[in-house]
């Protein structure tokens, strides 16, 4: 039996995890050279490809020098921390990927802290050393300081470091010495990461991931912690509430390359997928039939934000979506709970309203975007942070916010953050940028990214992560712009839009269908304004349409889903359909 190494790749968003996995797959010659080759092989869902981020963790396996290496690609964003916390339990070691210019970022700290707590052996990979102005040696020191701050053990602090560029397919123990392959990295994995130990005794496997097949139903994925699992045998499923249930394994698969291979038996230490058992949840243990022992369940960080989900009852209801009723939305939300551990759904006293709790705006927006692509129509309210009472005092979630911005624009960013009750922690130069770090209430982040990007002409790089619950900091004092609301239904005319341009900026185009109560723009003042955009020019024999000077209408402001979610106010809903995103007043009196 060959040896097994289980490694998870952890890093901040966009530091090159999935690209590195691509190169490991290439090095092991898993793919058929004759077939067309795509980049970012593991980011296989449309949302991941469009956003360039990993949302769901994935497994691949490669053979190197007679050793099987199971590689787990994890999400880098703290909003998907629920994914990271689960899958790290399958690993013996981690590859910590750090950008040679940016260094350790807030999310790096988050995932590394989880890995060190589990006692995993780290290998540090300083990636992107081909970047201009990069400082690999300083980054190496910063990673050491970070591990020390996270209370790593002496063994963990004695980590191996590999330098290179995953994009250009080379890794080396010295960043000045460029090679032509990533073999030094694979060698470091064999040397530094401990081989899986065979634990004698009754079988134990914890389910840490789910998959689904239209042919075989739900598939349980996890690592065998003790003993062996065999096809056709009966086992006991230990559930969260302490109950047990007899199950029989129909098929066992282990990971090989990009796919899975069916086997009769899986030994301790390997990661496998099981079909044929049902009624399981993530965290359940498959154990011995005679004397079942459950493994401790992973504690998942609690949600910090909530949103109201409700049916679409706008005048355009049912025109664009397939699934529009409260039953459809209810079933879809509860189905999501099966695999999205960091999510919570609460029913309300109304049949068609649901409170959905998540890790942050990105976590919730990915769920909403997935639903609209599946054909759902719904409305969501403004994101609200979850306030807790601790020792009789009001506490709110706090975040660590980091902003990298050109020096001449740093004051604008600092001013905007301080308006949201943010306290500065660090200010230091980083190449030609100024690096700023703040402690800020989570509710202060809602809508802040937009404002900072506008104020810094799009040059700011913004990241944040949840840090702790802190004392409530009071209300914000900033001025909020009023909404321009449509008071008539129909198609917007160029004539009306042109006449009202000086009143603010608009979110709609000429000839776009609008309805009464739809938020169609932002007033340049702080009060709300109802306007009629349907009105055309009154034409007579004396006044012809062509005699006026040509109209110059500014292009509409196009918001992404997250920007829309952060922009709406407490008295507004965001209408989400497969084709459009519209903001509207919940109650409009005209």
Task: Walk me through what this model shows.
By secondary structure, this protein is an alpha+beta fold. The protein is globular and about 85 Å long. Helix 10 (about 410-420) packs antiparallel against helix 12 (about 450-455). Strands 18, 19, 20, 21, 22, 28, 30, 32, 33, 34 and 35 form an eleven-stranded mixed β-sheet that branches. It has an eight-stranded antiparallel β-sheet with strand order 12-11-17-8-9-16-13-14, with no helix packed on it. A hairpin with a 4-residue loop joins strand 34 (about 570-575) and strand 35. It is built from 14 helices and 35 strands. Mean pLDDT is about 80; it is low at about 30-45. Helices cover about 20% and strands about 35% of the residues.
Please mark out the parts with pLDDT under 50 across 5 or more consecutive residues, or reply none.
Answer: 30-45
Approximately how much beta-strand content do the residues carry? 25-35%
Distance between the termini: 75 Å
What is the tally of beta strands? 35
| Oligomeric state of shown chains | single chain
> What structural category characterises the helix and strand content?
alpha+beta
What is the 3D shape?
A: globular
Largest sheet: 11 strands, mixed
Q: How many helical elements?
A: 14
Radius of gyration: 27 Å
Average pLDDT taken over every residue: 81
Share of helical residues: 10-25%
Features:
about 35% strand; globular; eight-stranded antiparallel sheet; about 20% helix; eleven-stranded mixed sheet; alpha+beta; about 600 residues; 35 strands
């Amino acid at each position: 039996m060959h040896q097994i190494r289980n490694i998870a790749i952890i890093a901040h968003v966009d530091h090159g995890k999935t690209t590195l996995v691509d190169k490991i797959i290439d090095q092991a010659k898993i793919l058929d050279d004759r077939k067309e080759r795509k980049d970012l092989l593991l980011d296989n869902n449309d949302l991941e490809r469009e956003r360039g981020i990993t949302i769901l963790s994935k497994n691949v396996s490669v053979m190197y020098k007679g050793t099987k290496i199971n590689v787990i690609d994890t999400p880098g964003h703290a909003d998907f921390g629920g994914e990271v916390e689960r899958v790290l339990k399958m690993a013996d070691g981690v590859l910590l990927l750090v950008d040679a210019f940016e260094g350790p970022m807030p999310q790096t700290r988050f995932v590394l802290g989880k890995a060190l707590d589990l006692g995993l052996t780290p290998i540090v990979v300083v990636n992107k050393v081909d970047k201009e102005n990069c400082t690999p040696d300083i980054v190496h020191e910063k990673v050491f300081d970070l591990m020390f701050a996270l209370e790593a053990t002496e063994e963990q602090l004695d980590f191996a470091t590999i330098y290179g560029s995953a994009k250009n397919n080379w890794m080396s123990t010295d960043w000045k010495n460029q090679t032509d392959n990533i073999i030094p990295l694979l060698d470091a994995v064999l040397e530094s990461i401990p081989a899986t130990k065979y634990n004698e005794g009754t079988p134990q496997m914890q389910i840490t991931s789910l998959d689904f097949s239209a042919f075989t139903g739900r598939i349980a994925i996890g690592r065998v912690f003790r003993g062996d699992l065999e096809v056709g045998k009966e086992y006991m499923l230990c559930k969260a509430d302490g109950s047990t249930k007899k199950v029989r394994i129909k098929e066992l698969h282990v990971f090989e390359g990009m796919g899975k291979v069916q086997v009769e038996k899986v030994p301790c230490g390997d990661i496998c997928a099981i079909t044929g058992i049902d009624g399981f949840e993530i965290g359940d243990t498959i154990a011995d039939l005679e004397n079942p022992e459950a493994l401790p369940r992973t504690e998942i960080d609690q949600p910090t934000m909530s949103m109201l989900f409700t049916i679409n009852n706008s005048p355009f209801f049912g025109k664009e979506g397939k699934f529009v009723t409260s039953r459809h939305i209810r079933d879809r939300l509860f189905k999501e709970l099966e695999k999205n551990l960091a999510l919570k759904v609460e029913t309300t006293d109304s049949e068609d309203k649901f409170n959905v709790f998540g890790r942050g705006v990105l976590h919730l927006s990915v769920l909403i975007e997935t639903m609209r692509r599946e054909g759902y129509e719904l409305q969501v309210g403004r994101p609200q942070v979850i306030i807790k009472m601790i020792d009789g005092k009001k506490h709110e979630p706090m975040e660590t916010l980091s902003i990298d911005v050109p020096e001449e624009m740093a004051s604008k960013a600092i001013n905007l953050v301080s308006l949201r009750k943010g306290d500065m922690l660090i200010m230091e130069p980083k190449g030609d940028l100024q690096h700023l770090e703040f402690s800020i209430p989570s509710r202060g982040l809602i809508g802040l990214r937009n404002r900072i990007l506008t104020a810094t002409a799009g040059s700011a790089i913004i990241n944040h992560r949840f840090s702790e619950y802190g004392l409530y900091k009071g209300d914000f004092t900033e001025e909020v712009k009023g909404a321009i609301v449509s008071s008539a239904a129909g198609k917007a005319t160029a004539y009306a839009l042109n006449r009202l341009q000086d009143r603010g900026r608009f979110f709609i185009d000429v000839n776009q269908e609008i309805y009464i109560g739809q938020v169609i723009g932002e007033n340049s003042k702080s009060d709300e304004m109802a306007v009629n955009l349907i009105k055309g020019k009154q034409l007579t024999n004396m006044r012809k349409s062509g005699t006026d000077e040509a109209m110059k209408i500014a292009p509409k402001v196009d918001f992404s889903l997250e920007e829309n979610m952060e922009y709406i106010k407490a008295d507004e809903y965001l209408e989400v359909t497969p084709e459009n995103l519209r903001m509207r007043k919940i109650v409009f009196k005209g």
